Amino acid sequence: MADQLPTYPITDRTCPYDPPAGLLALQEQAPLVRVQLPTGPAWLVTRYDAARALLDDPRMSSDMGREGFPTLYRQKMRPVLKGSFMRMDGDQHAFYRTMLAGEFSVKRVQAMRPEIEQACDQLLDEMIRQGPPANLHQAYGVPVSSRSICQLLGVPYEDADFFTTHLEALFDPHRAGAPERIAESKAALSGYLDELVSRKEKEPGDDMISRLVADYLIPGKVDRPELLLTSYLLLAAGHETTASMITTGTAALLMHPGQLAALREEPHLLRGAVEELLRYLSIFQFGITRVATEDVRVGDQTVAAGEGIIVSPLLGNRDQDVYDDPHTLDVRRRGRPHLSFGHGPHLCVGHTLARIELQTAFERLLTRLPDLRLAVPESEVPFRTETLVFGTIDLPVAWGEQPAKTPA
C-alpha cells in the first residue's frame, strides 16, 4: 500500500554533515527503494552505480510534463523549470547544451579567474577593514558568487540586491506562501531580464547574454521567452548553490581542524579538497527527478514505464561500496567522481565556473585569513535542512588575536 511507503524527503539530521539516519536505512535496503512523495509513489535511487546508470539512460526523461513525473513539492505550484532546457530530452536538449557549451568552456571560464580573484580580495579587504566578527555568507559567499555569474552573463552587479532577494524564494519551496512568492519573484526577474535583453540588442557587450542575443535571438534560432528563461535559470543556479558551497564548505573546514591544517600545510591539495567538499556536502540535497519512458532494468529491479525516480546525490556520494569511510571529510581523498553536479547528458552546464569560483574563493580566504575561526560555538551554527539547498547562510567568523578570557 502507498501509505505504508516511507515518506520522502527525509530531512531530520542528528549531525549536520551526515545524511538523515532514515535515508541511510533506505540505502541499506536496495539500490532502488519505493518511497512516497507528495504526489504519489516513486523510486529513490540510493546507490552510486545505479544513479550513474539511470542518469545516463535515454529512457529516463527530464520532461516534467510527462505522466508520472515526480515532484517533491507539498504545495501546488507552477514548476520553475518547466519548459526550460533542463527539462528537455534528446536533440532538443542537445541544441541548448551546444548553445551554452562555448560560454562555459574551460578556456573562457579560466580567463575569468583573475577577475574572480580580484573580487575575492576586494571583499576580504572590506571584511578586514570592518574587523571581526563577520557573517561569511553575506560578506563573502554571496557576493563572490553574484559577481562571477553577473560577469559571465552581463548582468549589472549593482542590481545584485534586487535579484538576490527574488532568487531566495526559489530555494525554499516548502515555506508558507511559497507558490505566491515564487510566482512573484519569477515575474519580477523575468521583467528585469527582458529589459536587460532589450539593452543588449541596442548596445551589446562582451558577455553571454549579448552573444546569445546576437547569435541566437536575432537570427531566430531561439525566441525571446526561451532566451529569458535560459538566462533566468543560469542566474539562479549560478548564484545560490555556489554561495552556499563557499559558506558551508568553510564551515566544514573550520569544524574539521585536522583537514583545515592539512590544506594549509599542503596548498596543492586545494583542487582535490574542493571536489571532496562537493562530495561530502552534496548541498543540492533532495535529488534529481526523472520519469521512465520504457521499462528500465537496474540490477534485479525494474523501473516501469511511467514511473518516476529521484536520484539522490547525497546518498550516492556516501556509498560505502564506492568511497572508503564515506562519512569522513578527507581532503586527500582520490577516487571516483562525485555526483554533486549530476551525471550524463544533463551534467550541470556551469560546473566549470563553479569549480573555478570555489577553488579561488577558498584559496584567497585561507591565504588572506590564516587564523580564520568560528566566532560562535559549533553548536550555534544554524543549518538549513529542509530547503532544496542544504547548508548555512549564517556563519559568524573571526580572525586576528583572540580576546583574553575573563578570569573566573
TrEMBL record:
Signal peptide: none annotated. SUPFAM superfamilies: Cytochrome P450. Gene3D superfamilies: Cytochrome P450. Keywords: Heme, Iron, Metal-binding, Monooxygenase, Oxidoreductase. It holds the Pfam family p450. The keyword Oxidoreductase applies. The lineage of its organism: Bacteria, Bacillati, Actinomycetota, Actinomycetes, Kitasatosporales. One of its GO terms (molecular function) is oxidoreductase activity. Belongs to the cytochrome P450 family. Its EC number is 1.14.-.-. It comes from the Bacteria. It is an enzyme of class 1 (oxidoreductase). InterPro entries: Cyt_P450, Cyt_P450_B, Cyt_P450_CS, Cyt_P450_sf. This is Cytochrome P450.
